[in-house]
Amino acid sequence: MHDVFLAFIPMFFAMDPVGVLPLFVSLTQGIDSQTKRKIIIQSLVTAAAVATGFIFLGRLIFKFLGITMGDFMVAGGAILFCLSMLELTRSSKSHAEKSDEVGAVPIGTPLIVGPAVLTMSLVLLSQHGIVPTLAAVFLNIALVGVLFTFADFFVGLIGPSGSRALSKVLSLLLAAIGVMMVRRGIIETITAFQT
Hints:
This protein is mainly α. Helices cover 86% and strands 0% of the residues. It is globular, with a radius of gyration of 17 Å. 32% of the residues are buried.
């Protein structure tokens, strides 16, 4: 249990469940509760599958394909940026059109399980072993699921108009996060070439 706790804390900060919640609200704003439940399940399953697969196979896959963590960050950031632009320019009537798409990408990955979580997984794997690392990942994903489930409560506090305004602001934040991921990916790629 001691190793699980030691692995849980850095994974919590890497996954940032509280920081992901507003972005989830933004991406699911205007979607009915039944569809939202499906999105939550899809996002959690995707996040767990990606994290587990990466823990077991990440280094081998990246090495086989010649992909670096910098490449992964640039790709994830570009996806987030494009999706945020769609959110900023999309009318509220069109939310239903994309409601079944956002669970896996971008919510499951790269929002819940992105480059930071995958990198941290490799670090924790070498420090604490596979069982504490997997436990830390699953506990944090479960925490995200609880926060997502009660997201409507937080939206209810600010009302429909406030929710729509918050959605646009958070989409802008999502774009900034995408740009940050691309920037970090480029820096990491340049650093890797220099060493």
